[in-house]
Amino acid sequence: DSGVTQTPKHLITATGQRVTLRCSPRSGDLSVYWYQQSLDQGLQFLIQYYNGEERAKGNILERFSAQQFPDLHSELNLSSLELGDSALYFCASSTRLAGARNEQFFGPGTRLTVL
Amino acid sequence: DQQVKQNSPSLSVQEGRISILNCDYTNSMFDYFLWYKKYPAEGPTFLISISSIKDKNEDGRFTVFLNKSAKHLSLHIVPSQPGDSAVYFCAASALRNNAGNMLTFGGGTRLMVKP
């Protein structure tokens, strides 16, 4: 158990819908990261938040957005869903913003299926 | 454009022997490298890391070697155990950017350790 929790575990929805994925980081961790794992693209970095502020952005679609709340939990919002958004979405957390020995601990993931 | 590549999708090894997993990268900005292990239905678990100022890092049965001139790293597991059977991901980060610890992952290698 990494200490990172994600809800829900599974999510099935239809094209065009909007969903929210939730992540609670390990106690004391200030950085939260979101990654997408799809069959054809592997694990891809989406976005990083540190202490409530967006700090790094990867190949995140404009239809996707995220935020980190004062209690440090984070939510990833996916809207206007398409079939290709079906994937595993992982949240990870680390202690600091950046640097060596700032290893990321991953949650169990949310499996999103868009029908 | 895959900046981190794991060219072997799978590897089968006998219990007690050495497992060698390989990873190549193309981005010269990468200066910190990590290996993660992933079991089905779980998130990736951090194994070991290495900074670009070193060429070797050891932790128990796991050793990571870095060859900067060849832009190549490898993970050695010795002796291999059946419980090591999992998918192994190589990941890289550009810490000098100081913008965060976003990780770029390779496609993974499935290791099977046969009893």
Assembly level: heterodimer
Major interchain interface with per-chain residue totals: A-B, 30 and 24 residues
Amino-to-carboxy terminus distance of chain A:
31 Å
Strand composition percent of chain B: over 45%
Largest sheet of chain A: 7 strands, mixed
Which of globular, elongated, flat, extended, rod-shaped describes the shape of chain A? globular
Element-level helix/strand string of chain A: EEEEEEEEEEE
Rg of chain B, Cα atoms, Å: 14 Å
**Main pleated-sheet profile of chain B:** 6 strands, mixed
Low-confidence stretches of chain A: none
Question: Structural class, judged by helices and strands of chain A?
Answer: mainly beta
Protein model, in words:
The complex is a heterodimer of chains A (115) and B (115). Chain A is mainly β. In chain A, 0% of the residues lie in helices and 52% in strands. Chain A contains no helices and eleven strands. In chain A, strands 2, 4, 5, 6, 9, 10 and 11 form a seven-stranded mixed sheet that branches. A four-stranded antiparallel sheet of chain A has the order 1-3-8-7, with no helix packed on it. Chain A is globular and about 40 Å long. Chain A starts with a strand and ends with a strand. The model of chain A has no long low-confidence stretch (mean pLDDT 93). Chain B is mostly beta strands and 115 residues long. Chain B is built from no helices and eleven strands. In chain B, strands 2, 4, 5, 9, 10 and 11 form a six-stranded mixed sheet that branches. Chain B has a five-stranded antiparallel sheet with strand order 1-3-8-7-6, with no helix packed on it. Chain B is globular. The mean pLDDT of chain B is 94. At the A-B interface, strand 4, strand 5, strand 9 and strand 10 of A face strand 4, strand 5 and strand 10 of B.
